[in-house]
C-alpha cells in the first residue's frame, strides 16, 4: 500500500502523526499540490475529492479524506490506543469534539489562509472578505478551546485522542499561518500544546 501526500499540508500531517502513534510505516509518494500534481488525470482518477492525502491499498482500493484514512488504520492495525475512543460515550465525545475542532477551528483557518493569501487563485475563486471573516471565526473559537482545556488534560478527556492531533495542527496553523499569539494569550492551550508537542509522534 502507499500514501500520496504533500507532507507539509495539515491533512497529510494528521495522517502522518496518527500513523506514528500507531507505529505504522507506509510507503509515501510525494505530490506537489501547489504545482497541481493532484489535478493530473493519473491522480484525480484515483481520488474522489482530488486532494491529498490518498491511501491506495494493495488491491487498488483508494481512500481519501484524512480522517477516513486514520479510521482505516485504527481498525486494520491491532492496537490498544483507542484514538477514536473506548466506551460508547467516549467515542461520541471524540466524534463531537473532532467535528467542533475541525469546523470551527481547522476548516475556518484553512478558509482564512487560502482566501487572504489567494495562494490557489489559479484554481479557485478567492474572496478576501471571506478570508477575514474566517480569521475572525478562528479568533472566536480559541477561547472555547482554552475553556475546554481548563477542564481536562486533553481536549476530550484525560486521554490523548485523534482530537488532540487535529487540535494541535489547528493551533500550530493559527500561530504560523495566521499569526495568532495563541500560546501567549491562552494558558490552557499553551500547557496542553507543550504536552502534546513532547510526544514522540510529534517530533
Automatic annotation (TrEMBL):
It comes from the Bacteria. InterPro entries: Glutathione-S-Trfase_C-like, Glutathione-S-Trfase_C_sf, Glutathione_S-Trfase, Glutathione_S-Trfase_N, GST_C, Gtt2-like_C, Gtt2-like_N, Thioredoxin-like_sf. Residues 1-81 form the GST N-terminal domain. Keywords: Transferase. One of its GO terms (molecular function) is transferase activity. Residues 87-203 form the GST C-terminal domain. The keyword Chaperone does not apply. This is Glutathione S-transferase. It comes from Photobacterium ganghwense.
Amino acid at each position: 500500500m502507499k500514501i500520496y501526500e504533500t507532507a507539509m499540508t495539515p491533512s497529510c500531517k494528521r495522517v502522518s502523526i496518527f500513523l506514528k502513534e500507531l507505529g505504522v510505516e507506509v510507503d509515501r509518494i510525494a505530490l506537489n499540490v501547489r504545482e497541481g500534481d493532484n489535478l493530473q488525470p493519473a491522480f484525480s482518477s484515483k481520488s474522489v475529492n482530488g486532494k491529498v492525502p490518498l491511501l491506495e491499498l494493495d488491491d487498488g482500493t483508494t481512500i481519501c479524506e484524512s480522517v477516513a484514512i486514520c479510521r482505516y488504520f485504527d481498525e486494520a492495525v491491532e492496537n490498544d490506543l483507542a484514538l477514536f475512543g473506548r466506551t460508547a460515550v467516549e467515542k461520541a465525545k471524540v466524534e463531537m469534539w473532532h467535528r467542533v475542532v475541525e469546523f470551527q477551528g481547522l476548516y475556518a483557518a484553512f478558509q482564512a489562509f487560502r482566501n487572504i493569501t489567494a495562494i490557489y487563485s489559479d484554481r479557485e475563486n478567492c474572496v478576501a472578505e471571506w478570508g477575514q471573516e474566517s480569521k475572525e471565526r478562528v479568533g472566536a473559537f480559541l477561547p472555547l478551546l482554552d475553556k475546554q482545556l481548563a477542564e481536562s488534560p486533553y481536549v476530550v478527556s484525560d486521554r490523548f485522542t485523534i482530537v488532540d492531533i487535529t487540535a494541535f495542527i489547528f493551533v500550530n496553523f493559527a500561530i504560523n499561518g495566521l499569526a495568532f499569539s495563541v500560546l501567549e494569550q491562552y494558558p490552557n492551550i499553551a500547557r496542553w500544546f507543550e504536552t502534546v508537542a513532547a510526544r514522540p509522534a510529534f517530533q
